[in-house]
């Protein structure tokens, strides 16, 4: 049982505005170590909502989530922030780099926050990650000078910096052109195959779902197939 | 909390919005500068005006007043005890004007812990004689050293020297206006005629200008020994004892006590100059409220700019939170931004405030009533700078606190999904 990274137990979630709607209905699943899982479903089926619950950012739900055998329920904001920092690497649809920083600093930031290593070591690791994603030469550029594809690769490097237990992605290819999408696919494949990284990607990109080990399909807040 | 990281993030955000943060800092600088200059000037002016009265007025004055005896013979008569006494035309008794047993009184005052010092004095009416003209006036027999130490007598001597009146026997210092009327210059002999008709030539060794012209037209100062000689009295003859206390506010109580103890009249400074304290406290209140208003306005500027910054940087805040920064970290970042605006702006404000005060201090300011003042009075009291520093930090902290709290409560999910 020790190779379970993430476990969702009976998750229910409601939106209250303007009327109470049940958006997630009794979600149960397990993600084991080294699995590459994709969550697919139509827009509005609740897959992103689920992801934000799993990522600890949304705490308004019923049920329980365990990351690395640690329950998220009844945790304080500051403890959740620590879990996010240490265990989860997050990739968004819209890249979200901090424009005031260089690429290198953007990648280093979660590492500096965690502070398990010295600044020098974190810098070294950040360069390694950039090298792994073939964007080492961008290290000293300001984040706002990059193209969309480059930004997304930097965001992936940032997600990797603390060697997280799991990487979560919310439509990571949703905003990219074909070429860059393929680059990102390739990166995910490499991460899963070569580096045994556990991945959980929410997407409606069928190609991405195909390259994953396992697909969880959702409809109207329920898992219909996993 | 990793302060180094927080500070480096705050610095980058500051740099990105350098112009706005500069403007906020300039707001603080301006308000601190004005606060210091205004209060320095106001306090200087207050001290000057207070000094006009306070420096020269004893806290307690012991003297004997000529007045009818409270106890008339009829009161003592046993035959009329229980009757209602109506007496017409009571005359003042021929009582002594000097303080009874003055040496012992002075000993007692000297031993009193509450007393900073005292200066005995002899006041007597004279005529100043200039050819055929007699000018009525007053001669004060004083101890020039005690008088200078306690009541700044030396500050009002416009020419000549204070100590000469003690060192040169039979010498006098005249009010400047009086000397002009007598057409007397330093070194000239001045004739005075005592109430009893004796004539004394005295050498003019100094001129005195009090700032109150009417006083300068009538006053002359001699060493108390000389005054005793003029009057033909012994060397224990003193009409007034002027006392300066360590704490001004004790004056009324001590005055009451002395009046009873020494059997003299005792007048305290609060009774003698009731109006002056009101003026100076009102001026202080006004200048402090103007200064603090300036700081609060600057605080609103910071509040505004930080609020704007937070709306602009929503993405950054969301990303920080998503990658593991807690609300507390985000709050610390924005409070650090606010405080650095406050510290930089405040520090520049202290320097400019000091410079501005120094400039005011150099502006010529001549007034005949204040011979020792040549430029505008400015006070450099550390407490003004301390208040300015404390207030700039407190207002910027508070101005930063509310936007920072808002930033710490930003829900990253809303920002990340809302795009």
Automatic annotation (TrEMBL), chain A:
The keyword Nucleotide-binding applies. Residues 6-226 form the ABC transporter domain. One of its GO terms (molecular function) is transmembrane transporter activity. It holds the Pfam family ABC_tran. Keywords: ATP-binding, Nucleotide-binding, Translocase, Transport. SMART domains: AAA. Transmembrane segments: none annotated. One of its GO terms (cellular component) is membrane protein complex. SUPFAM superfamilies: P-loop containing nucleoside triphosphate hydrolases. InterPro entries: AAA+_ATPase, ABC_transporter-like_ATP-bd, ABC_transporter-like_CS, MacB-like_ATP-bd, P-loop_NTPase. Belongs to the ABC transporter superfamily. Macrolide exporter (TC 3.A.1.122) family. This is ABC transporter ATP-binding protein. It comes from Ginsengibacter hankyongi.
From TrEMBL, chain B:
It is found in: Cell membrane. Keywords: Cell membrane, Membrane, Transmembrane, Transmembrane helix. The chain crosses the membrane at residues 21-42, 285-311, 332-360, 380-402. One of its GO terms (biological process) is lipoprotein localization to outer membrane. InterPro entries: ABC3_permease_C, Lipoprotein-release_system, MacB_PCD. The keyword Membrane applies. Coiled coil: none annotated. It is a multi-pass membrane protein. Residues 21-257 form the MacB-like periplasmic core domain. Its main location: membrane. Residues 290-412 form the ABC3 transporter permease C-terminal domain. GO terms for cellular component: plasma membrane protein complex. Belongs to the ABC-4 integral membrane protein family. LolC/E subfamily. This is ABC transporter permease. It comes from Ginsengibacter hankyongi.
């Amino acid at each position: 049982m020790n190779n379970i990274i993430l476990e969702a137990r009976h998750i229910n979630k409601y939106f209250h505005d303007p009327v109470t709607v049940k958006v997630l209905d009794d979600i149960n699943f397990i993600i084991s170590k080294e699995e590459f899982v994709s969550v697919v479903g139509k827009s509005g089926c609740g897959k992103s909502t689920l992801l934000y619950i799993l990522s600890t950012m949304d705490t308004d739900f019923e049920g329980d989530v365990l990351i690395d055998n640690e329950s998220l329920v009844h945790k304080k904001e500051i403890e959740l922030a620590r879990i996010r920092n240490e265990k989860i690497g997050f990739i968004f649809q819209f890249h979200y780099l901090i424009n005031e920083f260089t690429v290198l600093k953007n990648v280093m930031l979660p590492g500096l926050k965690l502070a398990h290593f010295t600044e020098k070591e974190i810098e070294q690791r950040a360069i390694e990650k950039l090298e792994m994603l073939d964007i080492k030469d961008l290290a000293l550029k300001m984040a706002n000078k990059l193209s969309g594809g480059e930004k997304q690769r930097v965001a992936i490097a940032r997600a990797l910096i603390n060697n997280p237990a799991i990487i979560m992605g919310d439509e990571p290819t949703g905003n990219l052109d074909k070429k860059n999408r393929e680059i990102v696919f390739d990166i995910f494949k490499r991460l899963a195959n070569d580096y045994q990284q556990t991945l959980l990607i929410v997407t409606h990109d069928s190609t991405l779902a195909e390259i994953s080990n396992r697909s969880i399909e959702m409809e109207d807040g329920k898992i219909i197939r996993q | 909390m990793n302060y180094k990281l927080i500070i480096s993030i705050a610095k980058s955000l500051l740099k990105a919005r350098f112009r706005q943060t500069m403007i906020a800092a300039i707001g603080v600088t301006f308000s601190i500068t004005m606060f210091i200059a205004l209060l320095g000037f106001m306090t200087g002016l207050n001290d000057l005006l207070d000094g006009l009265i306070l420096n020269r007025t004893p806290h307690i004055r012991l003297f004997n007043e000529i007045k009818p005896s409270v106890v008339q013979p009829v009161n003592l008569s046993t035959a009329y005890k229980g009757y209602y006494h109506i007496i017409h035309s009571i005359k003042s008794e021929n009582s002594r004007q000097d303080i009874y047993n003055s040496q012992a009184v002075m000993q007692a005052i000297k031993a009193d812990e509450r007393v900073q010092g005292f200066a005995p004095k002899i006041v007597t009416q004279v005529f100043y004689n200039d050819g055929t003209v007699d000018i009525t006036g007053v001669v004060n027999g004083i101890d020039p050293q005690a008088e200078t130490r306690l009541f700044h007598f030396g500050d009002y001597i416009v020419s000549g020297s204070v100590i000469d009146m003690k060192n040169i026997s039979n010498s006098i210092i005249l009010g400047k206006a009086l000397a002009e009327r007598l057409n007397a210059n330093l070194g000239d002999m001045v004739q005075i005629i005592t109430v009893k008709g004796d004539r004394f030539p005295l050498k003019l060794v100094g001129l005195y200008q009090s700032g109150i012209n009417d006083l300068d037209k009538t006053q002359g100062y001699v060493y108390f020994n000389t005054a005793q000689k003029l009057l033909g009295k012994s060397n224990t003859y003193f009409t007034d004892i002027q006392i300066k206390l360590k704490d001004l506010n004790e004056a009324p109580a001590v005055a009451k006590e002395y009046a009873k103890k020494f059997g003299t009249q005792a007048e305290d400074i609060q009774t003698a100059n009731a109006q002056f304290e009101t003026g100076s406290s009102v001026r202080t209140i006004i200048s402090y409220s103007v200064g603090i208003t300036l700081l609060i306005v600057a605080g609103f500027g910071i509040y505004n700019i930080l609020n704007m910054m937070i709306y602009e940087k929503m993405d950054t805040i969301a990303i920080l939170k998503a990658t593991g920064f807690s609300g507390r970290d985000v709050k610390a970042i924005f409070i650090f931004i606010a405080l650095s605006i406050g510290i930089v702006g405040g520090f520049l404000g202290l320097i400019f405030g000091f410079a501005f005060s120094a400039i005011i201090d150099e502006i010529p300011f001549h007034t005949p009533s204040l011979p020792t003042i040549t430029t505008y009075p400015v006070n450099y009291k550390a407490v003004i700078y301390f208040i300015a520093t404390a207030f700039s930090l407190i207002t910027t902290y508070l101005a930063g606190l509310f936007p920072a709290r808002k930033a710490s409560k930003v829900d990253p999910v809303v920002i990340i999904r809302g795009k």
